[in-house]
Amino acid sequence: MEYLKFGLLLLMVRVNTLYGLWDLSVLKNTYVVDISESGEGENVIFECPVVEETKVYWLIKGNQRPGRILRTHVMEDIDAGNFTCHRLTGELIDYKVVLLNTLSHLNQRLLPGKQPIQCEAQNYSGHFKCTWKRIKKHVQYIFEAQRGNYTITCEKPSENNRKYEVNCHDNESCQYGEESHNINILLHILDEKRYENHSLTFMLRDITKPDPPAELKISSTSLTWSYPKTWCNVHSFFPLIFNVNITKGNKSPEHHQGIDVPEMPRPPNGKFSFCVQARDMYYNSSWSEWSCSKHNKPRNKQAKKQKKKKKA
């Protein structure tokens, strides 16, 4: 069923197919011609919205073509662009924008790679962020997200550190309920006369990656840390598990995996550092980045100082 629904999402983009064109519904009067590897192109037809007796002309590639109906062959960049219909006085009546979608090898695409979009969520609140690499300046991005039969609210894509990112919030999401429908996203890319789109399907639990654990502390007997502040507040309902690495000097780290409480015994005397990462306990999603703390003072010296303070 999910594949069927995602197919319907793609059909939203491909409605009103006429003469080899398909209607890019997210932009008014904009159409796309798919160019296959054979590069044959498509014959397309546009009609100016006037009665038959009206004398009009189409302006295409700087040339006037008289008549209400425009027939042209679209095969390469020079054939695409803006087509405008005018009265003999020059008054603009209508316009069409034609873009090319080159269905060729991945390395010839505007946004290369099999899956150039990455999405992450810090928790199960319904907020998530998607990113992709910046291609070049003056490229237009349109981002859509949908779950089931409703649209997810997303901000406009913005550039940040040579990447584009978009923040979305699924207002219908219930963090205490089991997900039953995939989130389907669709990224439209427009670069002058070229067009392409990229899609991705996921559940929130698939892309959830907690922030690193916080408040790492070292006491005389234990190592402790806390859940990240951005994680779900009810820890008993959304527990995390932890991996801990303890490193002494130049030795290889000691690995402690699958710890289910934010605490463990402190190692014996000596200088050491420890790092902690977290993951959802019940779902095999992504581990957080590491959070680290360094301890420079041997425990026996600390104990002596504490004894001196007590005597004083």
UniProtKB/TrEMBL annotation:
Chain ranges passing through the membrane: none
GO cellular component: interleukin-12 complex
InterPro entries (UniProt xref): FN3_sf, Ig-like_fold, IL-12, IL-12_beta, IL-12_beta_cen-dom
Domain of life: Eukaryota
Compartment(s) of residence: Secreted
Domain Interleukin-12 beta central: residue ranges: 116-190
Quaternary structure and interacting proteins, as annotated: Heterodimer with IL12A; disulfide-linked. The heterodimer is known as interleukin IL-12.
GO molecular function: cytokine activity; cytokine receptor activity; interleukin-12 alpha subunit binding; interleukin-12 receptor binding
Gene name for this UniProt entry: il12b
Protein name: Interleukin-12 subunit beta
One Pfam match: IL12p40_C
Primary localisation category: secreted
Keywords on record: Cytokine, Disulfide bond, Glycoprotein, Immunoglobulin domain, Secreted, Signal
Chain positions covered by the region annotation Disordered: 289-312
Keyword Nucleus applies: no
GO biological process, one term: interleukin-12-mediated signaling pathway
Basic residues: compositionally biased ranges: 294-312
Family membership: Belongs to the IL-12B family.
Organism: Xenopus tropicalis
